[in-house]
Amino acid sequence: MGSLSDSKLPAIDFTKPDLKPGTLQWDSVKAQVQQALQQFGCFEALFDKIPLEIREAIFGALEELFDLPLEIKTLNVSKTPYHGYIGQHPKIPLFESIGFDDAHVLENVEAQTRTFWPQGNASFSKIIQSYAKELRELDQMIRRMILEIFQLEKYMEEHMDSSEYLLKVMKYKGPRTSEPQVGLGAHTDMDLVTILYQNEVNGLGLQSSSTGEWIDWVPSKDSFIVTIGESLHAWLNGRLKATYHRVMLNGDKPRYSVGLFTVPKAGYMIRAPEELVDEAHPLLYKPFDYAELLRFHVSNEGRYTQSGLKGYCGV
Ligand SMILES: O=C(O)CCC(=O)C(=O)O
Ligand SMILES: [Fe+2]
Question: Which residue ranges does the record assign to the Fe2OG dioxygenase domain (predicted)?
Answer without folding.
Answer: 162-264
